[in-house]
Structure formats: structure tokens, C-alpha cells
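Example 3.2
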Amino acid sequence: MAAILSYRDLKVWQKAMELVGATYDLTKRLPKDEAFGLTRQIRRAAVSIPANIAEGHGREHLGDYLHHLSIATGSLMELETLFLIARQLTYLPENEVEEILKRTAELSRMLSGLTKSLKSRC
């Protein structure tokens, strides 16, 4: 296993970055009148996930890292909810929302695993 020298080496951060790309691709298809509403909120939540993983990794104290991972997890749950809202409003097809929800579930498991691993160091 390769050493973790940077947050960019973390698989969870890499997956979160991939999710940002998928999110931007999917939100391009939302109605134009949602550009300053749902689209912006979805993208903000998605970007928050890898940003908080990176920020937490850069913190000096383990408690700060865990706090930022918690924020990333909260943003992930927000993102899931926003995609469910987009599906409920029939802005996005069910199959595409289900596909993105599979990715969020995987990322959730990874964040949980990292959090548990870090907590075991305490």
C-alpha cells in the first residue's frame, strides 16, 4: 500500500472529485430557471465534500480532521437529498439519479471507514 503523502493520495478524496464531475454533468440538464436555485445548491454540496476532506487532512489536530470529515458526510447527505428532490420534481430521470446515488453510497462507506480508522487512533 502506498504512503499517504497528500490528501490527493486518499481514495476517498479521489472518489469525491469524480462525484463532483458527475454532478456537474448531470446538473447541466436541469431547467435553466433552476440555475440559481437547485443547480447551484447541488453543485455547492458536491464541491464541499472533497474540499472538506482536503481541509481536514491539512489540519494539525485529529479532532479537526474528524470534524471536517463530519462536514463532508453532511454535505454528501445533502447532495443525496437534493438529487432526490430533482428526481421527485421530474427534472432528472430516475435511472440517472439512482446511478449517482450508488456513487454517494460508496463514498459514504469510504468516509465512514476513514472516520472509524482515525477514531481508532485516539
